[in-house]
């Protein structure tokens, strides 16, 4: 598969994502990260998440070389597989994040990634996984031809537990599946959506986990 062609067709640059991720950081994800933390993003893509993070150290990993030109000053970019984290110091990562990545990995590769994160996470480190929830997105799930693994919020949490992680937070409906529509992305609507008690249009889940033996 040509990664450049994938980003030219399936995953084209859309400035609305910057608005979305700036709001997601401000309204939700900032609560997980301290200013002194090291944050690692896996499958960074256009860097919308990591560029908005406010922390001491920011590291972005992606297999697509073109992602480097989208990173903000101060973000460390590394071109390579998310399953190869040997360049990251053991015990140095306080928050690891991946959006729409795990469904692109075979289960054995996901397990390998989790094994590496066990070494890379700090004593209080956490991982956050955001991706389509098959239970709600089964009709559209394989519209992306690079999807190879299927997870619902139940199976993803179970798999994480089987790998030795403890679930900190599981939101089965966290975000809509895509921003590809004719509607604008408004910060106030994002804020309201994240606080809505019922979110029937949201088809992406968020799962946050940690290693019990590494926490106080």
What structural keywords apply?
216 residues, alpha/beta, seven-stranded mixed β-sheet, 7 strands, 28% helix
Structure report:
The chain has 7 helices and 7 strands, in the order ααβαβββαβααβαβ. The chain has helices spanning 3-9, 16-27, 48-52, 107-120, 134-137, 153-162, 187-195; strands at 38-42, 57-62, 75-79, 93-99, 121-132, 166-176, 202-210. The chain is globular, with a radius of gyration of 16 Å. Strands 3-2-1-4-5-7-6 form a 7-stranded mixed beta sheet. 28% of the residues lie in helices and 25% in strands.
Termini separation (Å)?
44 Å
Question: How many β-strand stretches?
Answer: 7
Which overall shape is indicated by the principal axes computed on the Cα atoms? globular
Q: Main sheet? A: 7 strands, mixed
Structural class category = alpha/beta
Rg: 16 Å
| Helical content (DSSP H or I, runs of 4+) | 25-40%
Give the SSE map:
Elements: H1 3-9, H2 16-27, E1 38-42, H3 48-52, E2 57-62, E3 75-79, E4 93-99, H4 107-120, E5 121-132, H5 134-137, H6 153-162, E6 166-176, H7 187-195, E7 202-210
Parallel strand pairs: 1-2, 1-4, 2-3, 4-5
Antiparallel strand pairs: 5-7, 6-7
């Amino acid at each position: 598969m040509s990664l450049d062609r994938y980003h030219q067709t399936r995953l084209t640059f859309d400035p609305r994502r910057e608005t979305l991720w700036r709001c997601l950081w401000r309204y939700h994800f900032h609560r997980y990260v301290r200013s002194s933390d090291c944050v690692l993003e896996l499958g960074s893509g256009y860097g919308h998440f990591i560029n908005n993070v406010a922390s001491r150290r920011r590291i972005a990993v992606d297999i697509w070389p073109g992602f480097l030109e989208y990173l903000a000053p101060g973000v460390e970019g590394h071109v390579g597989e998310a399953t190869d984290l040997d360049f990251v110091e053991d015990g140095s990562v306080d928050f690891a994040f991946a959006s729409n990545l795990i469904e692109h990995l075979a289960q054995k590769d996901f397990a390998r990634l989790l094994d590496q994160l066990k070494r890379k996470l700090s004593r209080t480190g956490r991982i956050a996984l955001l991706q389509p929830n098959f239970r709600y997105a089964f009709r559209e799930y394989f519209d992306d031809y690079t999807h190879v693994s299927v997870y619902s919020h139940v199976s993803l949490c179970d798999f994480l537990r089987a790998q030795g992680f403890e679930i900190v937070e599981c939101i089965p409906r966290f975000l809509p599946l895509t921003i590809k529509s004719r509607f604008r992305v408004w910060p106030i609507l994002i804020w309201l959506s994240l606080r809505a008690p019922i979110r029937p249009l949201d088809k992406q889940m968020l799962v946050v986990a940690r290693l019990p033996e590494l926490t106080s």
